[in-house]
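In keeping with the milestone schedule agreed at the kick-off meeting, the structural modelling team has produced records for the first pair of proteins. Each record is given below as a sequence line and a structure-token line. The laboratory manager (R.T.) confirmed that both were archived under the project's standard naming scheme.
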Amino acid sequence: MPDSKPPNAAQLREKILELTAEFYAEQFPSRPFVPGETPVPVSGKVFFADDVRNLVDASLDFWLTTGRFAAEFESTFAKFFGVRAAALVNSGSSANLVALSALTSPKLADKAALAQSAGKPPLAPGSEVITVAAGFPTTVNPIIQNRLIPVFVDAAPPTYQAKTEDLEAALSSRTRAVMIAHTLGNPFDLDRVAEFCRRNNLWLVEDCCDALGATFNGKKAGTFGDVATFSFYPAHHITMGEGGAVVTDMPALKTSIESFRDWGRDCWCAPGKDNTCGKRFDWQLGDLPAGYDHKYIYSHVGYNLKATDMQAAVGVSQLRKLPEFIAARRRNFGHLMERLKPLGDALILPEATPGSDPSWFGFPIAVRPGKLSRADLVRFLDSRKIHTRQVFAGNLVRQPAYRGVEYRQVGDLRGADFIMENAFWIGVFPGLTTEMLDYVADSITEFVRR
């Protein structure tokens, strides 16, 4: 028998990748839904053979930090929003931290940066940031972590969005920014908030972690403010397992975002690259000696919040499915709404913010006080293996983490308290079938009609 040459690495890679489809079919088969036995989750990752293929492809490179897939994801994600830049990070919470920290950069006081931002100065310790009381902690935590002061406005069903009529009362001489989330995928009144920010020369940060693909008056949420954030946790619209992104259309902000993400460095070379600026040993910054290596000059007190290329590889394949994922969420939401509409005497059902087309993260429900007990309802659903979640932290100012934290609030936050005491949400993610949704609706109906 003649000697045969072993397959080269490219051939072996292709053989391995071809096997991933077979592995996916064996490892992750579809299973029938059995009411009362099969759990109905509120969220979860929805993935296919091509996602596994991309993940394995990236792992075979053994390039364990950001690389070719991260670059592809950032470019594609930025194009989806029609903005100049998207920076991949390791979570939505990190995206919020990076986005707000970037607004503290002294470089935003440079003449060119001020021109890009219409003269908005960088945030400084003691600056106030208007946010909403009913939300997720990591929308607010970066405000506190940057020694800024949160100013809480109220929210209430049926939209669960910030009461924009409270913005004027929240404004003070120290207000420098607004940072609010589009709760459960339903946009807040972006026209009103964006106009308020323009009129008062404030930065606007849109937390879109729940709302990838939502629109307001036909324009994508995430494109109204100076910077926007996204999450790719398994519960969200696409998944990387862990992951997030920050998008902006402002070049000066892009530089600061990437610096805070990448240790606070002044250098903008990609991992594994050197001397992108062409003068690596010709800089003189701060009190450093002239010619100090630019790769080790730090302009911000930053972090290491990069994602791995394996995460990015999954994100690249997930992005191709995003339009269908969004459509499925909207279909599922509509199905539940149709089924639960007759229960409006006992339940407060959700409503889209006028002018918006939400990309629903979940289906929020509030019980009408005196009619039902939320605790009894969610226990009943849990007994049927139907999962529920509270509307995140309820009223954040009631949480133990914020005892002793300096903040202001507008009014009594009665709406946030109502959400905390009476609201919960159920799932609409693409992994839920019509059979599952009908089982959920039937169970809620049975409980209410008792």
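The second protein of the pair:
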Amino acid sequence: MLESVINDKDFASLMQKNLQNIIIHFFSKEQNFGILCKIEDIGFYPVLPDDINAEFRPLTLFFSSRLYF
């Protein structure tokens, strides 16, 4: 049952919008956060150079941090 929900296009669209809103909210509040990604499922636009792509592991953690001085 859960698989049918996860694979539903409407559910995927809803999740994408929610995640975008959460990320925007974190940036607006200057809140640090991280996102763990399966590299095979994401794309970069513009395309990253090969030497950077070669450094990614199958599961890669991207994080945002605000430096305070």
